[in-house]
């Protein structure tokens, strides 16, 4: 099992795969049209291919039939009256390929663009190819849902009888269609020489937005940050904006908060972006020749999908009052900016408003507030005779149907806006093809302009200021872009292309915070690390140059415990010392393209290999080296054989094996993290073979191949549902030798709240074992382990995972592991089993099922309630009586208790006669509620285990909670366990809560005090 920590980059070219085909005998030879028209004939199929000799057709006629179809009420033809259609019949046993080819008599040297429209029902794949190369494949699905497919190629010399082709691929019972095919020569500038490679963006008009968000710049300058020019010279404030303009930036985006300060004037951080700062930034941008986008958050601090708090002054306003306040404040602020000389050309009414705006979450209320802001912008623009675009901003374009829904309700409520804007971060928001498709759908259906309001990417994985980064290796490991300067430039270029591919409705792209660099450069192992970090913290607090100051905690709770610096410094377009990166020039070079000297851009310099004890262990013979020109090759690694043989001889454990590889004349150090483990006794432990060998039941769970959620390989057991989830996945292993075993696995995810349960369990020899776990965030893998599982003479164990999770919780399981750790003892063990396989869940709603670009607070460990030691103060009981142990923990607004009840060995114990009273004190009179999350009894004879969850309940008096079970059950030789949750009726936190004694009553008599 090999895991490479640096994701391999995949190229777009691949071999053209064709099924069995029978070619038509005629092949057309076409003369070129005029220089500005298509070199292809019959590209819109207005003539039958049987009457016109332009196209040659190849397919397997046993399964394919051909026809042309006219436009009708249910079909829109992209060009002319006809489209070319094929039908793959229901008997096709494999994917069928239909190939249309055409030869062009003469093509002069130059760069060419092939383009066309395709659709398929239910779904197909389409690509262009030439006699030299293959273009990217486009997938489409649905009747009358046309997708554009293109291919660009360059001929360095003139070519005769040059063949181009179209490959259409679909399965049985599929309709395949193509139309509006053309080949044109692109009359563009020759690529310039640069420090980065940039593939020219096609279809980009002269006023395409190439913008940056520079909202934190003034706070950076106030903190003492120095920005430099290309030669290392110090830049003035105006010089900095002039540099951006020279690099091709034509638009500046500036966020505006209402009042980002506390009552004493201390700023909340994140740039302290009030109106005054917006004026300063806006004038600098205007003087540099840029247009300005004003991003109104309608909040006093960050607004995003996870939080949309109203300004402090508006918190108690009704919706009508908020609408009036938005109109007045927008009007006043815009007039201030424009009268100060700021060239405001666009206004955002709200920021990432998926789940609310200004404290309102209902759709009708949100639209009412949108309209209030739009009305103000229209009024100011008209009164000052200015043209100002109005944008509505959302995020999470990767979610199917989301943007169609948003655009529909904006139309339903008559929101008067011009631009549908989205955030797009490649490590969170899906593919670029999907981005183009969802933006095209909004543009074509609702006739709106579209743009990307935020994008960014890491140029390094290092931390520059002592405050952890938002984007780390785990975020970029599944992408084809390395965390390098070239990788950063490639992301920006490709996002620009994705927007340009929408057509004339695609306005452009804004890069988010390219100048948010460290205040002071922090190096973790440097001798001055502590003093640099202390200085940074002081400046973050004083000047607001970090993402939040401690003062923000009064406004947003996440800032109360996790305030600090820039989590974005490794995604800036300036290095940690303030010097511009070559990637900044991507805005200028996108129109012409650029070539750079060939250099190593990234290398797989760290590998992870897992080997099983007693089996042959080998390390990869080569590693992949990627170059800045998009090419890659594999280079041989020379491993330290002595280190490897020593590790194998030592056996179980983790080892580092060193190696070297050479590329482009330079030797690179390579390391391999080798883990030698006991043999895994599970079949298909990582779901690479689908659900084989596993029994999976319940809702919200399935095996999926999804790179962003796997730990190793290509597949995982993924879960998500918009309803509460209850599911299990189990595997039974037989033929084992008696002894002790361990079962473990990995899980990750989020939005599970406090009321979800994730449990790994094992059932063997009449015993039930389990280990509870949790999910914290994306790609933060937990590794629970169930230990000391005893397998008896039958050699059988069933292992698995049992989950109850709240709606919209999400995540995945991967890499389960079962191994033997010890031989059988003289007598079988008697472990204390856990009560329940499937604990109950009382869900609480969650806002979002995807990570937010904004930093998340680090959870603090809940303090434990320390009850009095177990001291028996009760009357002596000579007969049978229960023995109770208890653990309690205060976790936020909930007390979680675990009770274990056994007999004292003196006779039968009826569980239904036991009452447990937990005494407490607290400072308020709010009503307490009691819930049993799980309960069960392990018995010494069949049925061995009984689930008691529904039988246990509790009631609350003024100073104690009483817990009991209505099930008559003899615990003379058994153990009952109960997990109890105590919380206040309104789910608020406890005030002055303290645990007191716990009393145990049996048949009405006090028998124990804990």
Automatic annotation (TrEMBL):
Residues 832-861 are annotated as: Disordered. GO terms for molecular function: arabinogalactan endo-1,4-beta-galactosidase activity; cellulose binding; glucosidase activity. The keyword Repeat does not apply. Its EC number is 3.2.1.89. The keyword DNA damage does not apply. Keywords: Glycosidase, Hydrolase. Residues 606-661 form the Bacterial Ig-like domain. It catalyses: The enzyme specifically hydrolyzes (1->4)-beta-D-galactosidic linkages in type I arabinogalactans. One of its GO terms (biological process) is pectin catabolic process. It comes from the Bacteria. It is an enzyme of class 3 (hydrolase). InterPro entries: Big_4 (IPR011081), CBM2/CBM3_carb-bd_dom_sf (IPR008965), CBM3_sf (IPR036966), Galactose-bd-like_sf (IPR008979), GH (IPR017853), Glyco_hydro_53 (IPR011683). Belongs to the glycosyl hydrolase 53 family. PANTHER family: ARABINOGALACTAN ENDO-BETA-1,4-GALACTANASE A, ENDO-BETA-1,4-GALACTANASE. This is Arabinogalactan endo-beta-1,4-galactanase. It comes from [Clostridium] polysaccharolyticum.
